[in-house]
Write a structure and sequence with these properties.
The protein contains three helices and no strands.
Amino acid sequence: MTTTDIIGFIGVTILLIAYFLNLTDKIGKDNLVYLQMNFLGAGLACLASILMKYLPFIILEGCWTIVSAFGIFKYFKQNKIT
């Protein structure tokens, strides 16, 4: 197993755990931990795709990372203490 494989495996595992926790109602889609898990998992999977030079998954995981970052930004904007 290469370093690229390990990075990708960790990223995908984080994504799948977040998805499972959401499906079993252990964590909501607007929960900060869920958003962070998606951001980290997709970012690692994107990095692995970049290292493999596999453009379709670079685009997929890159978009997933950006959307997750937007969700995190939205979370902090809505939960801003005034």
